[in-house]
Specification:
mainly alpha; 3-stranded antiparallel sheet; two-stranded antiparallel ribbon; 9% strand
Length: 364
């Protein structure tokens, strides 16, 4: 009863029900932390048109939930479009949206029209492409074309321009059909494509994965690089950046690594208990201890924390076995060029943090 009541009544979960993660758009844009046009900027003009508030007011068709969850944080937009040859007849498409989709197929491509953004989301979902990877690789391709690194010969005649959703929809089709070597390279991700054609300085890949939607500061990028499961939600580094910005209290590289690892160890416990990370504020140490006690597995706080560290170590053992090396990690220069809202992201800061992480995580 306690957990259920917290889930349906606490203000922490209410935001997920009302707006979902799309509520992050306005906040991050205001902070200058919303990656825009391949991170050439941290804010997008008219971002309010693709915000969670605007979508909820004008397009929200339904909320749904994962199995047995009372919150209902999954938001579906109802996109109503007339048939070309049938007057007064409309087709309604239900399209799921969240913050990462809005970032990847909205702000990072310079898209501010909500219906065009929803069409892009639908175009990515139909063939089953990863939205974040697709948006980032298209943003890189747009800038590469702008800079003359590639030409329309590579893009198969497409003039990719910021905000041009029709060109991006066609490019998505070409990524799936792969009519030439360029689109075959895009289909393998932005790290691979930039290694073939150039433009690595603005290819937003970290640890092999395309960037998530948070340009909040160094902790976010260290999370992208070091997360045990290669996800920006491993340690919520963006939260540490926001703390530094709010308190105007910079942390040292070592302090950032220590804080991110402490949080990541705890998240191993939550994921091990199949807890939704959106509800992590509900599942305190005391709640976890009580839940384990009821299940007949009483544990002390230290025993629980040790399990988190052990799980993290096992994940890294697997990563190392597969060839992962912290010393080989690269950081796109674009991350250093665009001002972040917390503290300056410098190569020196990031290298010191990574060197310390290598010793702490890998014992090297």
């Amino acid at each position: 009863d306690h957990i259920y009541n917290e889930a349906v009544e606490s203000p922490v979960m209410k935001k997920y029900h009302d707006l979902g993660t799309a509520g992050n758009v306005s906040a991050l844009n205001k902070m200058n932390a919303l990656p825009t046009r391949n991170l050439q900027s941290g804010s997008l003009e008219n971002a309010d048109k693709i915000s969670g508030e605007y979508l909820a007011e004008n397009y929200l068709g339904r909320r749904i939930a994962c199995g047995h969850c009372p919150v209902g944080c999954i938001h579906l937009a109802a996109l109503r479009e007339p048939y070309e040859d049938e007057p007064y007849f409309f087709k309604t498409t239900m399209i799921s949206y969240d913050f990462e989709l809005i970032y990847a197929l909205g702000s990072t491509l310079g898209i501010t029209d909500p219906e065009n953004m929803l069409r892009l989301i639908d175009s990515v979902e139909k063939p089953g492409l990863d939205a974040m990877s697709t948006g980032v690789v298209l943003a890189w391709a747009t800038e590469a074309l702008e800079r003359g690194i590639v030409t329309t010969a590579e893009t198969d005649g497409l003039e990719l321009k910021w905000g041009d959703h029709k060109a991006y929809m066609e490019a998505i089709n070409k990524i799936t059909s792969q009519p030439n070597d360029f689109y075959k390279a895009l289909a393998k991700g932005v790290a691979h494509a930039s290694s073939v054609y150039g433009g690595e300085d603005f290819a937003l890949a970290f640890g092999g994965n395309e960037m998530a939607g948070y340009h909040t500061g160094p902790a976010a990028y260290l999370n992208y690089l070091l997360g045990a499961r290669n996800s920006h939600l491993d340690s919520g580094g963006y939260g540490i950046d926001q703390e530094m910005a709010k308190n105007n209290k910079p942390l040292t590289p070592k302090e950032v690594i220590d804080k991110t690892l402490t949080e990541e160890y705890w998240r191993q416990i939550l994921s091990g208990m199949v807890v939704c990370f959106f509800a992590r504020g509900i599942y305190t140490m005391e709640v976890i201890k009580e839940a384990l006690r009821i299940c007949g597995m009483p544990k002390t706080e230290e025993e629980i924390n040790e399990i988190g560290r052990e799980i993290h170590a096992l994940k890294y053992k697997f990563k190392k076995r597969e060839g992962f090396k912290i010393k080989d990690l690269k950081i796109a220069k674009r991350a250093f060029e665009t001002k972040s809202p917390s503290i300056e992201i410098t190569e020196e800061f990031m290298r010191e943090a990574l060197d310390y992480a290598e010793k702490k995580i890998c014992g090297e």
